[in-house]
Design goal:
Helices cover about 40% and strands about 35% of the residues. By secondary structure, the chain is of the alpha+beta class. It contains five helices and eight strands, in the order αββαααββαββββ. It has a domain of about 140 residues: Nuclear Transport Factor 2, Chain: A.
Length: about 220
């Protein structure tokens, strides 16, 4: 009886051991199967994020390396408005082309006489009687000559005398008004420099343009010393 009990106990232990091995193998197989399935699942696979091309700024302007197709047609740039000087000159009729060239020639001669210091040649460009000479009115050419000679004596050396931004304000057959920016730098014992906007009124006398009015419109800056 004792031998049979021992034999039965041995069989039971062997059965329990086999059953334990089966459970262990089944557990390992189940765990391994889940892991293998998880590795094959495309949804759970971690992919690196797709980076879109970034915009690149160039001197404040946004320039993209890749641009989507435009949803609206590109606008055709409109022509710029003409500058005032071009507009004024465009208003001059073809018949006044010769007169406009004569006005430009007068301004060139006026500037050149100042640079050369030829006050007599400059005075000839003025009318015998002026309607306006800066703050004075109805003065003669002799008054203009004396004033130019006084300036020449005070500032005999001209380093700079430029006329720019010439605008014809009005232009008729025998009368014209022209303005320009003047910048100068002259010196003698003292120095005199500055910039202002000046206006001439011109009138044709004996077929030639003469200055009948001279005035200061805007003073930008002046230095004396």
């Amino acid at each position: 009886m004792r031998h049979d009990a021992s034999k039965n106990r041995l069989k039971l232990l062997i059965s329990l051991a086999v059953l334990a091995v089966v459970f262990v193998v089944a557990g390992i197989a189940q765990f391994t199967g889940k892991r293998w399935t998880a590795n094959r699942d495309p949804i759970s696979v971690t992919r690196p994020p797709v980076t879109q091309p970034q915009a690149r700024a160039v001197f404040g302007d946004l320039t993209q390396e890749l641009r989507p197709a435009p949803s609206v047609p590109a606008q055709v740039p409109q022509p710029e408005e003409p500058q005032k000087e071009e507009t004024d000159r465009a208003r001059t009729t073809p018949g006044n082309a010769v007169s406009s060239a004569s006005i430009d020639g007068l301004l060139d001669r006026w500037r050149n006489t100042v640079v050369r210091g030829d006050v007599k040649a400059q005075a000839i460009l003025y009318a015998p009687k002026m309607e306006q000479f800066f703050r004075r009115r109805n003065v003669t050419r002799d008054v203009v000559l004396r004033e130019k000679a006084r300036m020449k004596e005070l500032y005999p050396n001209v380093s700079r005398y430029d006329i720019t931004d010439v605008q014809v304000e009005s232009h008729k057959e025998n009368v014209a008004v022209v303005s320009f920016r003047k910048e100068w730098d002259m010196h003698g014992e003292r120095r005199f420099s500055g910039s202002h906007r000046q206006r001439f009124k011109l009138r044709k006398i004996a077929g030639d343009w003469k200055i009948v009015g001279e005035e200061e419109m805007v003073v930008y800056w002046v230095r004396r010393g």
